[in-house]
Fold these 2 entries.
Entry 1:
Amino acid sequence: MAAKLPKKGGVFIQMEDEIASMASIIGASWTGARAMTATSGPGFSLMMENIGFAAMTETPCVVVNVQRGGPSTGQPTMSAQGDMMQVRFGSHGDYAIIALCPASVQEMYELTVKAFNLADKYRVPVFLMADETIGHMREKILIPDKVERTERKPFEAGTPPFRATDPDMVPGFPQFGTGQHVHVTGLTHDERGYPCATNPKLHMALVKRLVEKIENARDEMADYNIINPDAEQVFVAYGAPVRTVQQVLHDKPGKDIGFLRIRTVWPFPEKALATFRNASSSLR
Amino acid sequence: MNLGQMAREIERHVKVPVVSIPKLGGELHTPAELIAALEEMV
């Protein structure tokens, strides 16, 4: 990306650590740029404080986490999916995020595009939760001539910058440099963006909105495949293990093995599980 | 490739037994391991 991004009009910055990397994409996003960073292992832990800041400030951004074995430095260059709860709950306080899990190189591309669109639509950090197996995989991919792009909701000048009156509970984006003079803080803030950290009702309303704008869109952003919905035994998988389950289905053809293959892991597509009405057990 | 993190999320939403097939160490499950888990259930 360091070599290729500038050729496409982008900017690549090598930061000193993952704390700074996360802070940088938050700042870049507020200038209107689409911004992402990538990490693995303890680097993801270093990002946690600023991930909470991004959630609180409703900053669209994308983080790629190529998961490896942990805890701590663990197993660099070895595969794991041990950060699935950390991505959802790793920063402090109540908040919600979106996490996508690719199972191929093609999906690394497609879900990265999707991650940016979801981040801009919902003004939230979106995570591409790959694993080392997919991260180091080489496969042919098809890159379309055009990609679908979701724009951030425009900001109506003169309105409070964090007022969210639409049913989706997402405020318009008052981009830096456009004369809006918006105040952005990780403190509990009112619709103007100014700190009101000792107001219980305001804090309740703000945090509920941050969570509900994502949780209420659970069905809309659900992304999964169902195979053999009448099966009694059902595999549930995401990321690289999807490929192992696909091999099992290939080796054991028939309708006795079901498969729920999940791409959007958070928010969790819980309704998909109800599809398997005959399930007597679910394996993952 | 964890110790069942998402299995607990699935348990919250279904009324049937959820069997975790945990694997750590940095390698993918093999098809044989998944088939063995299936056969153990039947």
Note: Chain A has ten helices and ten strands.
Entry 2:
Amino acid sequence: MGLLGFPLYSSLALFIVPIVIVLVQVWYVWKKSGEDEEFFREEGVI
Amino acid sequence: MASPGILILGAYLALMLLIGIITSRYQKTTDDFWVAGRRFGPVVLAVAIVASIAHGGTMLSGVGFTALLGAITVNNLSFALGFLIVVVFLARKLRALGGYTLPDYLGERFDSRFLRGFGALVVIISATVYLIGQTRAMGFIIQGMTGLTLEQSILLGATIFILYVALGGLLAVVWTNIAQFIMMYAGLALLYITLYGKIGGWAAMATKVEQVAPGWTSITGVGWAPMALISWYVVWIVAYFTRVEFVTKLYAARDPKVARYTIPIACALILLFFTPIIYFGGAARILVWSQVTSPDKAFPILINSALGPMGAAFAFAGLAAAAMSTTDSLLHQSGAGIAHDIIRKCLFEPNKVKKSEEFYVRVSRVTILGVGIIAVIGALYTSEIILKLVSYAVAMLGASFGPAMVFGLSWKRVSKIATGVSVVGGFVITAIWSIMTIYGVTWAKIVHPVIPGIIFSTIAIVVLSLILPTNISEKTLNRFF
């Protein structure tokens, strides 16, 4: 049971896991955005 | 009457030159020339990063090897993981450092002129070798579009990209990258829509390709050995977070938060670029495989068979744009390695030689012209060994700098000597292994050269840092932690 006519493991490697990793990146950036702002204001970078 | 290929290519090259002339007006300081005044937002930067990563070779060999070996050849997973490393470890701190080049990071983080100088040499050698290969690939694409000879094609394309990089620096590189990105994606979209009409959707493609190449859609594709497949994925994970043009574009972000926001956008765009390559690979296997004499020819044959003369010219212009978007970034980086890292930071400033910003901008332009001429000569008269080394150039960079970047930005205890051994050892081992592979040493061919290189550089930096003192001042460490 895969995706777009591909077997399960290929679907995972080609489509599903990469998209999940992009979502993890978005989540990480969102989670860290508050901390970043505080840190860089203290450092005078922004 | 001129052919559609000549007309479209002529308009494209004129646009690139125009961007170079316009952006040349904004080059007053080295900050303007090397990092475009650090003024870019996340979307512009993401598009420029994708355009420089997605080169002509990626499309030609991507479609060809996917057709030959199966869908798994496309490295979506490697990109996503490599970019995750950039988001978590590199983006914010690199931008906060405010440098111009990857050797800037090595010099500043480890208080070391040796590491800056050695890093610059590695960047100059690998970026120039890669530039020669890409310039030659661009020549082949222009030759296919116009009917010019290969020599004329290389000279035509190279003259344009050398001029606009020398005139407009990174600002010209980024704005031409955006135009190239639009052309690349428009060309891909046109081909995808046409092939969709001939083959059907993804499920139909998967069914048809399995009939002509059983196993093509499976996790091991058609004929991949497990070790070779793992090596392939490791190469691209490491290669993509250490790409020098990628690092410079992070430095050009408006602020450290923007650098971090840029990465998921770039990663999503990269997946949108690579995923159609799976479909094109399958389409090539179904429709034109009997005409294909080598994998690199699969994509051009597919374009010519699916599209009319105007459509094919448009798609080839997208390919030429993809090739040029990487050559300009590599030229910019080779130039920065010489003008900024070697001349300014290793020779002039440590010896108290004071020069104006205008002087350094002039040196930068002359360096770009010089490296560009070397690349053209290399592309015209290159030896077989140079062409073979191209495929290992990114591996040498990755094995040399990967652990120094990840550990250096996440672990305060990393020692200066450990980093030196890691960077030099990673490069030397990967280079020697690459040469042994090229010359056919049987046992060396078992794994890709990046594997021994990255294992050595990782073990060296971790073990020696645990044993040796850091030898880095508190002031420097406080900038990063």
Note: Chain B touches chain A through 36 residues (CB under 8 Å).
